Amino acid sequence: MLSEFNYHRPESLDDAIELINTTVDGLFLAGGQTILPLMKHNLATPTDIIDLASIEELKGISVNDESITIGAMTSHTTVAKSQIVRDNFLSLAELAGAIGDPHIRNKGTIGGSIAYNDPAADYPAALLGLGATVFTNKREISADDFFVDIFETALEEGELIIRIDFPFVDCTAYEKFANPASLFALVGVMVSRNDSIVRVAVTGAGPSVFRINQIEKALEASFTAASLDEVPIKHADLNTDLHASAEYRAHLIKVLAARAVRKAANQLDQKAPHL
How far apart are CA 32 and CA 108, in angstroms? Predict the structure, then answer.
């Protein structure tokens, strides 16, 4: 049985911020794919729910000369089908299109996904692997500083994600080995290269999304799948659960990273301007 709470549906960002500051234990509601199941099981008992669905300034996708911008309340389906995203970051569109099932993609939002920081979610790998920046009502936070630990981010109490900026890179690709039931990532790897800088972000394998420095350095020396052959992947800090062992996840990291590099390198060969 749900605990009693007050429901609010503000129509502006300013109203939402004002509301959260007047609550005892209020929560923002984005797509509801996480918080509503928690509330049903009384694992979350907020005094107030502030539904962001009517705030148009939190939705939408735009592009400029340096990056694309995705509003926090933009759904996974919208990202997956966006021509702007597909033209500039096809890997991001493909990532969004492979999240969960149609219901989850239609209701879930990019802001809600990264704010919860599920260790097996896909979007954290996209932000970290592409060097994105998170803009809130208070500040801007680099992806490297945003994801802190399992279900924990750098967001402060009452802080709200407004948008995410993804800077253009020379090439990028995302590869995921999904749990066949939930479609969450047992392991997902996002690889990007921009000039001489390579970023490799891994989700699903540890308590939170993380980068692998030794793979990045190997790819900066030679952006080929073969360059990963001799790179050791330590499994001591990786997850072991009923779905996969830490050793298996370590194996998947290297396999998926190699696949992503092949796909990204092929983009370089085709000399596409933004991928």
Answer: 7
Residue 136's nearest CA partner among 105, 158, 109 is 158
The per-residue pLDDT for range 133-161, each reduced to its tens digit, is 999 999 999 999 999 999 999 999 989 99
The answer, yes or no, to whether residue 273 has pLDDT greater than 60, is: no
Beta partners for residue 173, in sequence order = 191
Q: Beta strands of 48-184 (E only): which ranges?
A: 48-51, 61-63, 67-71, 133-136, 140-142, 147-149, 152-153, 161-167, 171-178
Tell me: pLDDT of 35 over 90: no
Task: Kindly report the pTM of this predicted structure.
Answer: 0.94
The SS3 of residue 264 is: helix
| Domains of the chain, start order | 6-50 (3.30.43.10), 60-270 (3.30.465.10)
Q: Is residue 74 within 8 Å of residue 61, measured between CB atoms?
A: yes
Q: Say which residues have a Cβ less than 8 Å from residue 196's Cβ, sequence separation at least 6.
A: 220
Percent of the chain whose predicted confidence (pLDDT) is above 70 = 98
Q: Are 128 and 211 in contact (CB under 8 A)?
A: yes
User: What would the DSSP string read from start to end of 216-247?
Assistant: HHHHHH--SGGGGTT-----TTS---SS--HH
